[in-house]
Each structure stands twice: as C-alpha cells, then as structure tokens.
Amino acid sequence: MAREKREILSPKSKIIRWVFSILLLLYTSITIFILLSTLINSFKSKSDLINNTFGWPEKFLLSSYITVFTEDKFGLYFRNSIILTFCGTFCCIFLASMVAYGIARFNFKGKGFLASYFLFGMMFPIQISVLPLFIILKKMSLLNTLGGMILVYAAGMSLPVYIFQKFFRTVPKSLDESARIDGAKEFTIYLKIILPLCKPVVFTVALINSVGYWNDFYMPMVFLGKKTCRTLTLAIYNYLNEFLKQMNVSFAAVIITLIPIILIYFLFSSQIIEGITGGAVKE
Amino acid sequence: MKKKQKRKKPYLLFIAPGFILYTVFIIFPILFILYLCLFKWSGLGPMTFVGLDNFKTLFNSPRIAPTFWHALGNNLKYLLCVWFIITPVQFLLAYLFYLKIPFYKYYKLMIFMPYVISSTIVSFFATMIFNPSIGFLNEFLTNIGLSHLTGAWLGDPNLAFKIMIIIIIWQGSGSGMMIFYANMMDIPTEIIEASRIDGCSEAQRFWNILLPLSLPSCASIIVMSSIWALGIFDIPFILGGSSGGVSNSLDFVTMVFYRYTFGNVLNGKSDLGFGAAISVAMFIIIVIVTLVQNKILSKFEYDN
Fold first, then answer.
1. Count of structural domains, chain A
2. Which residues on A lie below 8 Å from B231 (Cβ)?
3. Which sequence spans correspond to the domains of chain B?
4. Optimal mutation site among B78, B118, B190, interface A, most CBs of chain A within 10 A
5. Which structural domain, as residue segments, surrounds residue A260?
6. Are B276 and B54 in contact (CB under 8 A)?
C-alpha cells in the first residue's frame, strides 16, 4: 500500500468532504445518544424517568434489572434465544455445507437443477409460507416447541448453500483425491479436509445467520405463542405493548438484549460486513 | 449390490438430509398455499372447495377489498421509497466512504451498526423518541421553547409513514451501503488512475465511471430489497399494532394477512383458505415485480 498516491484535492472538494463529514457526525451522534440514554434510563426509577427524561438518574438503581430477572422470567427467555440461535445456526450450517459439498464436488444428472432448486427459496419472503408452516408444525405437534423453530430455521439454507458451493469449488480437487486414494471415506474428506479449509467462510455465514435468528421477531411470534418458549425479542415486544406501565423495566430488558449483539458486532464487524457483501456481489 | 450403489452415488448422502428439510419447510409450503387458496377451511374439520371465491372476496367485497387495496397501495408506496430514497441514500453513503471523507471508518462502523439490532428494539427506540407524552422529541422541543412544533408523530396519519421510512433507513441502510462500497472498492485502480491522468473532474468520474460500474450490483440490491419491501411486517406491526396504525397509515399486505389468519384464531372464526389467498396474491405480486424489474434492469446492465 506504500505506492498509494493521495490525490491533491481542490479547496472546494475538501470543504464538501468536511461538510458531509460533519453531517454524518451529527447523524451518528443520534445513534450514540439513543444507546447511551437507554443505558442511563435503565438505572432510573419510574418516577425519576417521567420527571427527568434526559438527565442523570437521581440514584443509580439496579431494581429494574432485578425485576426483569425475578418477576419476569428473563433468564428463561435468554436461554430460549441462546438455544434457538446456536442450534438453528449449527443445524443450518451443517446441512447446508453438506448439500453444497455434494453439489460442488460430484458430477451427476440434475446437478444444475438442484443448485437452482436450492436458490429458489431466496425469492420469497417468509411471510408467504408462514401459514402452511404453521399447519405443518401443528400436524407434527412441533408448534410451541423450540425444536420446531430450529427445524424451520435450518431449512432456510438457500444463501448458505449458494455461498458454500462457490467456496468449495475454489478448494483444489487434488486434495480430496489424494485422501480418497489413501482410503478416506467421503464423509471424512468433507469433515476433516474441506470444512477446516473453509473455516473463515463457515464462520462468517454462521455469524450472519446467528444475528438473524437472535433478532427474528415474526416467526417466534407466530410459532412460539406459549410463554415458556418466549424469546428475548418477544419479551421486548410485550414490554413495548405496556410501555407506559412498564417503562423503567423495559429499558433494562432492552439493554440486556442489546449487550450480546453489540459486543459481537464490535468484535466481528469485519466478518459480518464480509458476510453481507460477499454473497451478493461476486459472481 | 448395495455397496456398489453406495459407492456410485456418494453425493446422495450429502444432499438428502438438507434436501428433505428444505423441501418440507420451504418448497412444500409455497405449493401448499397455491392449493389451499381454493378452499374454505377453518383449520379443523372438512375443507370446502370454493374455487376462486377467496380471490373475489379479496379483490371485490365491499368489506375487505378496500383494506386490501389500501394496504397494497402502502406496499407500493414503500417500494417507491426503496427505489428512489433508500437505495440512493445507500449509494451516496458508500460514495462518501469511497472518497475517504474525514473519519469515514468510524462512520462506516456506526452507520452499519443498527443492522444487528432487532426490529423490536428499533421500535422501542422509536417509541422512546416519538411517544407523544413521554418521548424525547416532544420533551426536547418543549425544553427549547418550540412547544408549538410538538406533535403526535407516529399517531399522526400524515407523518407515521414518513417516520417509518426514517426508522427503516436508520436500521437497514447499512447492508446495501456496504455492498455498494465493496463494489466500488473492486473497481480496478488503473481505470481511476487513467481518468486522473486525463484530468477528469470528480463529478465526471462519478457519473461516467463509478455509477455505470456499480449498476450491476445496484440491480441485485434493488431486486432483493424489493422482495423485502413487499414482505415488510415487523416495524409497522410493532409501531402501529396489528390494525395498521392510525387511519391505517401503517397497514401493509402482510398485516392484513396476519389479521385474517392468526388474528381470529382465538374466536374460531379464522379462514385459512382466505389467508392463503392473500399469500398467493402477494406471491404473484412478487413474481410480477421481480420479472418487470429484471426486464428494466437488464437494459442498464453494463457488461451486455
């Protein structure tokens, strides 16, 4: 990068750049203001919150956090969200990578059709198939179970299959051929040779999927109506419906839900961005 | 014999589990609604074949049709916002980062961040700011002596839609922005260098090099975000309630669908066939919009 030449800018374009920079500074300050005031408000008592929306709390109280975990079952909701996110991601990635491996590594009739068959699901938002899914889950008595939700998540494998296929093609075939000569089974080749080589892309796709599952609202609302399998997003939704009554508690609930995802974002932002851009741009 | 077959088709082992799951939960539901929309069915008991009656009710009945057309109108309004407001904003932001304006790395990180925040929390923030009685905005306007500017915001049918667009830009503009940015960074430096040597101005470079070279990625972003635009649900549902906000200003087709299928489950009046008909209508609209877009966008394809 040493040879990168910086263009000499005219004073006018320099000013324009600074103007936009200041506009974006204001815009991003709003984001920071929102996050910080949510954090600060979560330590306020209800009366303090109503009288003093902006300022520092009269006294830093942890009572809202305690209420959230004791009177409401936030521990349980947290556990449900974690289970859905982890199991959903694991199943989806595992099955999608196997499918992608099968399509990318073997030659058979109907291979092209199969590749587009798996892409087809990306064409339609989940809102279209939610009613039949509801009926199917009910028939399988998987409604109101985390297991059923995990199966639905795992089935949405269009994008992972597509991305993995592209990646598996870049791994030289000589690798698996030499392993095959040494007598390795197909599944071993996939698990021990190909997957480890594709760790970065597997991680990226897993990250994107987990963020999606953690934040999902529509499907849990329809498929997980029972209180015991409520997720964090549903819990927040319930607080929001009683916002005026539960104001102070809901700020604490939002902070608890936000912290894991914000931490993950700042730790892995480059991987998340890569996951978003990688699938859509390159042919 | 069995062993021989296994050796011949090892790919079956890899593809079958995923294939079965995907077929049952993704492909079969789409086929199933195409069938279900021809019936009247409460979810229990027998299904009565009614042909296209569900669609007639949806498009023509004086009770339901106006709601549906109004909601569809809102969807199209939102689609236009995606094309003419949200996508250009995303492109402009990507271009600013491409120009490396001061502190652009920090802005990139911060503007993209809301992408990982769930719609419920985003709606919570919106309530926190726009709530008429305790929201920050009204409080702030009163404090600085501009109390005549305070409003009902999301409770105002003229403003609710616009505020929703702002909220969606705040939450969702990051992904498209990043795709545009990645695409601009992929433009070969030789082309940019050459234009620099030829004395091309910044504006010329933008209109004649960057914009045309970004059009292919534009196409994929627009197609995907249009599909999402027709399926928009979370934010208007949480902000406006299942009835679609004040004067139905935040009503969308997905919400009409939700009201008629799941909203009535408890009082036993649900008609799943009718719900399926709404889904099918949505399905057809998505297919039409995608086809039309492909046709229009392929004309702009740079490398043809």
1. 1
2. 125-128
3. 45-116+160-300
4. B118
5. 66-281
6. yes
CB A206 within 8 A of CB A96: no
Say yes or no: A136 contacts chain B, CB-CB below 8 A. Answer: yes
Question: Does residue B48 sit in helix, strand or coil?
Answer: strand
Give the C-alpha separation, B80 to B73, whole Å. 11
The residue of B7, B8, B9, B22 whose CB has the most chain A CBs within 10 angstroms, and thus the best one to mutate to test that interface, is B22
**Number of Cβ pairs closer than 8 Å across A and B?**
242
Phi, psi of B251 (to 5 degrees): -95, 135
Q: How far is A246 from chain B (nearest CA, A)?
A: 12
Amino acid at A232: L
Q: Could you give the CA distance from residue A269 to residue A267 in angstroms, rounded to a whole number?
A: 6
Going from the C-alpha of B277 to that of each of A190, B71, B230, the distances in angstroms are 43, 15, 16
Are the beta carbons of B160 and B151 closer than 8 angstroms?
A: no
A198-247 pLDDT, tens per residue? 888 899 999 999 999 999 999 999 999 888 999 999 999 999 988 878 88
Largest separation between any pair of C-alpha atoms in chain A: 76
CATH superfamily membership of B45-116+160-300:
MetI-like (1.10.3720.10)
Among chain B residues, CA nearest to A153: B25
- pLDDT tens across A36-63, in order? 999 999 998 888 887 777 778 888 888 8
The pTM of this model reads 0.89
What is the nearest CA distance from B62 to chain A, expressed in angstroms? 25
Give the residue carrying structure tokens 């087809």: A120
